[in-house]
Amino acid sequence: MTFRARHLLGIEPLAPPEITALLDLADSYVDLNRRAHKHGEALAGLTQINMFFENSTRTQASFELAGKRLGADVMNMSMQASSINKGETLIDTALTLNAMHPDLLVVRHPHSGAVALLAQKVTCAVLNAGDGRHEHPTQALLDALTIRRAKGRLHRLTVAICGDIAHSRVARSNILLLHKLENRVRLIGPPTLMPAGIADWGVEVFDDMREGLKGCDVVMMLRLQRERMDGGFVPSVREYYHRFGLDAEKLSHAHGDAIVMHPGPMNRGVEIDGTIADDINRSVIQEQVEMGVAVRMAAMDLLARNLRARPREVMA
Ligand code: ASP
After folding, report:
1. In sequence order, what are the residues at sequence separation of 6 or more whose Cβ sits closer than 8 angstroms to the Cβ of residue 226?
2. Residue-wise pLDDT tens digits, 192-228
3. For the whole model, what pTM was predicted?
4. Cα–ligand 1 centroid distance for 310 (angstroms)
5. Across-strand partners of 158?
6. How many CB atoms lie within 10 A of CB 141?
7. What is the Cα–Cα distance from 115 to 128, expressed in whole angstroms?
8. Backbone angles phi, psi at 192, to 5 degrees
9. Please, are residues 216 and 185 in contact by the beta-carbon 8 Å criterion?
10. Which of 23, 145, 182, 232 is least buried, going by the fewest C-beta atoms within 10 A?
11. Tens digit of pLDDT for each residue in 244-266?
């Protein structure tokens, strides 16, 4: 099994069997990662460059670990946000790196669409590690693997995604993936944090947590993305927590066995109560981090199989 595409730019172009195959492969990497000897050979001899134009803790660390565990030579480049505001600079950087013959380029960028643009200019495989508000495919895939392992299936579930939907690439990628596998998605948050055109997304929208959480199997909380806000989207953090912060009382409206997720970084006391986040009977937030490494190993493995099978050319 390989991906049809050379790159992993988003969930949108993936077919359901590609998603399932990736998750199956990732399951085997979860097993590998739990062994004392954690090394595989799938990326042996390949060079992986991580280019993060936006801050990251989990994603960058987990891509780095994923590459190293599969035998790649991994280089991290920390990019200065101030130097990338012109499209040309991004492309120039990409062309410079491309001349060093990387095989896998992992890119995070604050502008939606920037990673896809870059992918057209290089001869290696590009993985989108988050572009603006657009997509964060490996986050949705790791969320999917976490849900599948916790619930035993990844279809016909009711999943609530709560909070700052408007600025969230995590929400967008998750909605796309969950719909492809026939789940019901509810979005819960203040109307000011819902994206325009939400009526066409095939989701149910709520602005009341208790109502929206009723009967949900999965509760996914999102961070207030203040760095992407150009004005006051919520009256105050206190008010936001009161209405939309997940606490035990609000969670009691979901199914008794509903799991709680958060992509991180988490603001305790803003979108989630610390006790809920740490409750090992409800919260799978640490499992999400674990699944992140395995999913990124699987994604790079599948793209590397493509690289080995196809001649290299600029895709533009
Ligand atoms: N880490 C996720 C992202 O990069 C979520 C967040 O930052 O709130 O989109």
Report:
1. none
2. 999 999 889 999 999 999 999 999 999 999 999 877 7
3. 0.95
4. 33
5. 184
6. 27
7. 6
8. -70, -20
9. no
10. 232
11. 999 999 999 999 999 999 999 99
